[in-house]
Amino acid sequence: MTRGAELDQSRVTVLLDVRHPLAYLALGPAIALGVSEGIEINWLPLATPPLHAPSIPAANDDRGIRHRRARATAIAREIEVYAAAQGLVVREYYRNAEAGAAHLGSLWVRDRHPEQHVPYLRESFRAYWALELDASSTRAVAALLDRMDADGSGFLAWATGDGPGEAAALEDALRNYGLFGVPAYIVEDEVFYGRQHLPMIRWILRGRSGPGPI
Fold first, then answer.
1. CB–CB of 161/155 below 8 Å?
2. Are residues 87 and 123 in the same domain?
C-alpha cells in the first residue's frame, strides 16, 4: 500500500513542511487534537513554496501589489502573535532552505519508530526555527535521530538508498490527490487548509452532532 492510499484509511491526515512557519504554528494544536479525540494522526511531509516578505512600497504600486503586501504583513503579524502565544521561537520567516533530509527523517521515524514520530516532529521544527538544524543535511538529521534512539545509522543508509525514491513517490501521490499547501488536514475525504478549521474538524470527528461551527 502506498502512503497516498493511506489517506483514504486514516481518520485524520495532517500535511506539514518543516520550512513553513504556519505549519509550525499548526503542529502543537494538531497534536492536541489527536490527544483530545483519541486518534492517531497520519503525519506526512509536503514541500511547499516559502513565504514571501512584504514588498517595499513604491509610488507606482498597483492595487494587486498593495494587496499582496498587506497580506504578507498580516501573515507576519500572525506568526509573531501566535508563536509568542505558544512559546515558540521562530526566526527568519522568509528563508528558502532545502529540507529534504528533515522530511526523509519524518518518513523514517513514521514507518520504523512510530512512537518517536511526534517527538521528532516537535524537535525538528523547534531546531529548524531556532536555526539549530540544517534540514538539508542527512548527517544532521541522523544525529537528531540518534539522540532519540531512532537508528540514525540506519536512516543514513536508507536516505542514500531507497529513501529519496519513496519520498518522491509520496509527493507524487499527494499532488495527484490535489494537495498543494500546509498545514493541510484531510478528514473524511474533505481537505482543509489552515489551523482555523480545527473546530470544524473536531465537529466532523465527533459525528457532526449538533450545529456545525461557523
1. no
2. no
Same domain membership, residue 162 and residue 115: yes
pLDDT of residue 167: 95
Cα separation, 66 vs 54, in Å, equals 9
Which residues does residue 44 pair with via DSSP β-bridges, in sequence order?
A: 15
H and E: helices and strands count for the chain? 9, 4
The Cα–Cα gap between 113 and 163 comes to: 15
User: 214: buried, middle or exposed (CB in 10 Å: 19+, 13-18, 0-12)?
Assistant: exposed
Residue 128 and residue 197 in one domain: yes
pLDDT tens readout for residues 19-52: 999 999 999 999 999 999 999 999 999 999 888 8
Running DSSP on this structure, what letter comes out for residue 56? Answer: P
Amino acid letter for position 8: D
As beta bridge partners, residue 186 has 13, 191
Residue type, 108: W
187 and 114 in a common domain: yes
Residue 6 pLDDT class (50, 70, 90 cuts)? low
Give me the count of residues in the chain: 214
**Any domain includes 214:** no
The count of other CB atoms within 10 Å of the CB of residue 90 is 19
E strand or H helix at 52, and its extent? none
The residue type found at 201 is: I
